[in-house]
Design a protein that fits this description.
The protein is α/β, with parallel strands linked by helices and 263 residues long. It contains nine helices and seven strands. The chain has a seven-stranded mixed beta sheet. It is elongated, with a radius of gyration of 18 Å.
Length: 263
């Protein structure tokens, strides 16, 4: 793990995870898109919300499909695919298209406080980045559909999907974002939604806030500086599940600075 220096730790960037953090995309976005692609491929796979919660222990949709295929004793490769790699590549491509259609239709809104915090950071000159396991085209679709056509340019680094070979909980996707930002980890705050993401961010040396999702509520999130139900809004306070919120009721840059200074 990267050690944090004792110099004054001013906030220079926020690094957001996407799925579960910017928006609750997993159960009602990725999961049905997987199921649509499975049906189209002639498979009888149909992941229920409960089953999907368990499958989320594996980061990355392609890795999740591979694990599921390898653990299904009765899985038979449909004849039109050359091998398991070809199957995963093609079916995941179809899944991505279904997911993007749902996102472009605006079916999945941003979580409370996300847009407010992003806009506050922009006004204050605090830079923005993304570190996610999902594919870059999914990130672009979500950000554009929710924040406007030009909003991608607000982010100085978008590290996503196969840009790194080792997915979360490995720190690689955060290290990539940090090197693109050119800012030491000690001056950045990560925002995540689950244990795999938290471990990746902390291993990269980042102070991390976790906003839980239904499936991550019961996870061990001990390494987080603060665990919340969501980022909160001035008229919609967050609930603190672990950590010190210093009397704040929503996450703004002032609270982010305090969390950095205390870590
Ligand atoms: C997100 C993921 C992704 C999504 C599906 O993890 O694990 O696999 O579930 O997206 P995180 P893809 O939020 O921690 O980055 O199918 O494009 O992988």
């Amino acid at each position: 793990m990267v050690s944090k220096s004792s110099e004054a730790r001013t906030l220079q960037a926020l690094i957001f995870d996407v799925d579960g953090t910017l928006a609750e995309t997993e159960r009602d976005g990725h999961r049905p898109a997987f199921n649509q692609a499975f049906a189209e491929a002639g498979l009888d796979w149909d992941w229920s919300p409960e089953q999907y919660d368990e499958l989320l222990a594996v980061s990355g949709g392609k890795q999740r499909m591979r694990t599921y295929a390898e653990q299904s004793s009765d899985f038979q490769l449909p004849p039109r695919f050359a091998d398991l790699d070809d199957f995963i590549e093609q079916v995941h491509g179809v899944k991505t298209q279904y997911f993007q259609d749902a996102i472009a239709a605006g079916e999945i809104p941003l979580r409370p406080g996300v847009e407010r915090l992003i806009r506050q950071a922009r006004e204050a000159g605090v830079r923005l980045a993304i570190s996610t396991t999902t594919r870059p085209e999914n990130v672009e679709a979500l950000i554009k559909s929710q924040l406007g056509e030009d909003s991608l340019s607000w982010f100085d680094a978008i590290s996503a999907g196969d840009m790194v070979s080792d997915k979360k909980p490995a720190p690689d996707v955060y290290q990539l974002a940090l090197s693109e930002l050119g800012i030491p980890a000690a001056h950045c705050l990560a925002i995540e939604d689950n244990r795999n993401g938290l471990l990746a961010a902390v291993e990269a040396g980042l102070t991390t806030v976790v906003t839980v999702e239904p499936y991550s509520r019961q996870q061990d999130l001990t390494e987080a500086a603060l665990v919340l139900d969501n980022l909160g809004e001035p008229d919609q306070p967050f609930t603190v599940m672990a950590g010190n919120s210093y009397g704040h009721t929503y996450l703004d840059l002032a609270l982010a600075e305090k969390l950095l200074a205390a870590d």
